[in-house]
Design a protein that fits this description.
The chain is of the alpha/beta class. It is built from eleven helices and eight strands.
Length: about 325
């Protein structure tokens, strides 16, 4: 990998589901200590994951998976959706996934499959209760009534996603739509989450820095080492982190990496630079159920193991899993 991504010289919130221990015994309750490392050995396949065991480190109590999608066949895909069928990435399937990797808290993001139909996300929030938060998708040109937005907030919605990559029902997403959506988020006390390629982030840096609400950037900023515009995008994300109003999800390594599993080594300098810049503005997400990668599912436990190399030390790693998402998403 080019030395363009050498690490720069930078100075620098709910009780969970029961999880099985290595020998198959169940915990009736979990205290404040970490889970045993390497637990949940092969107990059969987990939907939409190739993981056969748990992470290699002790996952702390209240660890948060800050980026998943729920796709439930009770809620059909939006008309004209060009992607794969809805499938059965349900709450029940995700709970099995949680048992495998050891997380307790969850952030559910409405996928492009549903357009602006947030029913599957809201239904999942009702099922998961205080352990979950949600990020919705809304057409700022035809927003729901205020009472409906208030009900969404009560259910656990705390952010709005603006997608510059996947097909949207309104066609192309531009910065005018970004700013209009941010104004709505500001009225609700929510944040803005964006999914954009590194080159798009570089082009929009001034607009992103000017948003009146906190900004959350998906999937490492989609900084793909082999694509043009990556150094500029990576630099833009670092500068945005430096504003102290931006967060980055350490997620989607299997999407951005050119080298691939199991180490995704080309992304290590990129993620480590984020850690050096703003270790308290990073969260981790699995991106389960890995839409568009159903035929080549990643090992989610190995994706979580990446934090051991990226974070540099256990204290920072555990903050990325617990303290940071508790602050961003309001877990208590």
């Amino acid at each position: 990998m080019s030395d363009r991504f050498a690490l720069p010289d930078l100075s620098c919130e709910r009780r969970g589901f029961l999880r099985s221990l290595c020998m198959g015994a169940s915990l009736a309750a979990l205290g404040s200590g970490p889970l045993l490392a390497g637990c949940a050995t092969d107990a059969g396949p987990i939907p939409y994951s190739s993981a056969r065991r748990g992470p290699r480190f002790a996952v702390p109590a209240d660890a948060c998976d800050s980026h998943i999608h729920i796709l439930d066949p009770r809620f059909p895909a939006r008309p004209g959706w060009p992607g794969s069928p809805v499938g059965e990435a349900t709450v029940a399937a995700y709970r099995r996934f949680q048992d495998r990797i050891g997380t307790r808290r969850t952030v559910i993001v409405t996928p492009s499959t549903y357009g602006t139909d947030n029913r599957a996300t809201l239904d999942a929030l009702r099922q998961m209760g205080a352990q979950a938060r949600g990020v919705a998708v809304i057409d700022c040109n035809a927003p729901p009534p205020r009472a409906e937005l208030a009900a969404m907030a009560q259910a656990g919605i705390c952010g709005l996603r603006v997608n510059f990559v996947s097909p949207q029902i309104w066609g192309r997403t531009d910065t005018a739509r970004l700013h209009a959506t941010a104004r709505l988020a500001q009225e609700m006390g929510w944040h803005i989450q964006i999914f954009a390629r590194a080159s798009q982030i570089a082009a929009m840096e001034a607009d992103l820095a000017a948003l009146p609400v906190p900004l959350v950037i998906d999937h490492l900023g989609f900084v793909t080492p082999q694509e043009p515009g990556t150094p500029e995008g990576h630099g833009a994300v670092l500068r945005l982190l430096g504003t102290r109003r931006t967060w980055v999800k350490l997620s989607g390594a299997y999407i951005a990496s050119g080298e691939g599993a199991p180490d995704y080594a080309d992304l290590a300098p990129i993620a480590q630079a984020y850690v050096a810049q703003a270790p308290d503005r990073l969260v981790w997400g699995s991106d389960w159920p890995h839409r568009g990668h159903e035929n080549d599912l990643p090992d989610d436990a190995r994706l979580l193991d990446l934090l051991d190399r990226w974070a540099g030390d256990a204290r920072t790693r555990d903050a990325i899993l617990v303290r940071n998402p508790a602050q961003l998403y309001g877990f208590s």
